[in-house]
Specification:
Structural class: mainly alpha
Low-confidence stretches: 1-20
Distance between the termini: 35 Å
Number of helices: 17
Strand order of the largest sheet: 1-2
Radius of gyration: 23 Å
Shape: globular
Number of strands: 4
Helix content: over 70%
Order of helices and strands: HHHHEEHHHHHHHHHEEHHHH
């Protein structure tokens, strides 16, 4: 059942909701008891290690059913603190699942179970971006099905990757269905920021070794671009809060967090992430009411960067334009490094091959690995996929801007402003990375999008409650 909109009754997602119907309470506990008995019998047949993993999964399932909010906190902590498991390989890439992928499946299944039992809840809350999400999802699925039928896509690879492309939207719908008040949003935001602090500490611990900073469980070489995009999203959020804060104490806290996230961000040595800072700052300047302060700060930062930037960052920047023995590409009279040259060469190859399947592309995983979201989308999903992705991004930005303009509370405006800057940064980051399919960036991104877009409805509901109480 699909909800008709935001204005449905304010039903709790936990035990309070269950208590509204005695018959359903009995059914609910009978199901839980049956699950416990079957699980206990099943665990006796497994090894100790496997039993503990299954038991943990069952515990999270029960927690998700009883208290979805608690399960979402677990999901937030697992976003960048979870290992990965290879489940398939092919088409020049591996298909991997992380603990947060599994958690998301468990939480999603628990939500479906509750909606089946309590049909008045609805599965999807009506939001302004439901239609763009649906269009993009249909294109992903249909293009990949065609790829399988014409033997361009291995079924297992295509199936798992389509699921990974679409699982981030499950995060979004879980958030907009779960949130019931502004205090919940504050708690979730702090959970995301605290997770970012833990990740930043981990990143700082890597700096003395001289390696490029990356997130935990990213393999031997790590994924600095992923870490850079993730930290840039957090920097955008705390910058938005800083620019709308009313007290000096609050400003100091958010400024401290911005500096704390910036240190490992610089040491990712991710040029794609560094470039994405430009649209982030421009968005903050354009939409913020404190333009003068921000402009002075940017001028000061630009002036001091050549002096205080670490040696490794300077070398990384200069490396882009140095001459190399290997074959390099010349752009506007500038010779690029081998890495940048290879990336641009792969983009040219995409444009040449895209014309063979221009409408729906080769299907997800049907072409091979391409490092660049827009070119990858173009060759995998064709013009239909690229247009649907751009349409989705446009609507997300437009709706967040609407929220920023209608909200009056500083905290709400700060969160919306931060996400406007974050969206701009991610749009640029996508030029040199597969940003919109990277789980460690997209899970917090869609979590934050859900919180921003639900803000006006929550404030309206709070005002209605106050009027009813008076």
């Amino acid at each position: 059942m699909i909800s008709t909109g935001f204005n449905r009754p304010d039903l709790s997602c936990g035990l309070d909701m269950i208590a509204t119907d005695r018959t359903k309470i009995h059914i609910f506990y009978i199901i839980l008891l049956s699950m416990a008995v079957l699980t206990t019998h099943f665990l006796t047949q497994l090894t100790t290690g496997t039993s503990l993993k299954v038991a943990a999964g069952c515990l999270i399932l029960v927690v998700s059913i009883l208290r979805t909010e608690a399960a979402l906190y677990i999901l937030i902590l697992s976003m960048l603190l979870s290992p990965e498991i290879k489940v398939a390989g092919g088409a020049g890439r591996d298909v991997v699942l992380r603990v947060d992928d599994i958690l998301l499946v468990i939480i999603g299944l628990s939500w479906l179970a509750k909606t089946a039992l309590f049909k008045e809840m609805g599965i999807f809350r009506k939001t302004p971006i439901n239609r763009p999400i649906l269009i993009y999802a249909v294109v992903c699925a249909f293009s990949t099905i065609l790829g399988v039928l014409f033997d361009r896509v291995r079924p297992a690879d295509g199936f798992f990757y389509v699921l990974k492309y679409l699982e981030y939207f499950v995060v979004y719908f879980l958030v907009v269905n779960q949130l019931r008040g502004g205090e919940q949003i504050r708690r979730f935001v702090w959970a995301i920021l605290i997770t970012g602090v833990l990740i930043s500490i981990y990143g700082m611990m890597q700096i003395p070794s001289g390696v490029r900073v990356s997130a935990p469980f990213e393999g031997i070489n790590g994924e600095p671009n992923t870490m850079g995009g993730y930290l840039l999203l957090l920097i955008s959020i705390v910058s938005g809060f800083f620019l709308t804060a009313k007290t000096q104490k609050t400003k100091v806290i958010y400024m401290g967090l911005a500096v704390f996230f910036t240190i490992p961000f610089i040491y990712t040595l991710s040029r794609t992430s560094w470039i994405a800072v430009i649209p982030m700052v421009m968005t903050l300047i354009y939409f913020s009411y404190r333009k003068t302060v921000l402009i002075y700060f940017v001028i000061l930062a630009v002036a001091l960067t050549p002096i205080f930037a670490p040696k490794s960052a300077k070398e990384r920047f200069l490396y882009t334009f140095q001459k190399h023995h290997t074959k390099s590409i010349v752009v506007a009279g500038v010779t690029l490094d081998p890495s940048s040259s290879d990336r641009i060469t792969s983009w040219g190859r995409c444009l040449n091959d895209f014309v063979h399947h221009p409408v729906l592309g080769y299907g997800i995983t049907g072409y091979g690995f391409i490092d660049g979201q827009y070119f990858r989308t173009l060759v995998e999903l064709g013009l239909a996929g690229l247009v649907s992705l751009w349409y989705l991004m446009f609507v997300v930005f437009r709706e967040i801007l609407k929220v920023y303009r209608v909200c009056t509370r500083p905290y709400d405006k700060g969160l919306a402003l931060g996400m406007l800057a974050g969206c701009s940064a991610m749009f640029m980051h996508s030029l040199g990375a597969n940003t919109f399919i990277i789980v460690r960036i997209m899970e917090p991104f869609w979590f934050l999008v859900g919180m921003v877009l639900i803000l006006p409805r929550l404030r309206m509901a709070a005002c209605d409650d106050e009027e009813a109480g008076s």
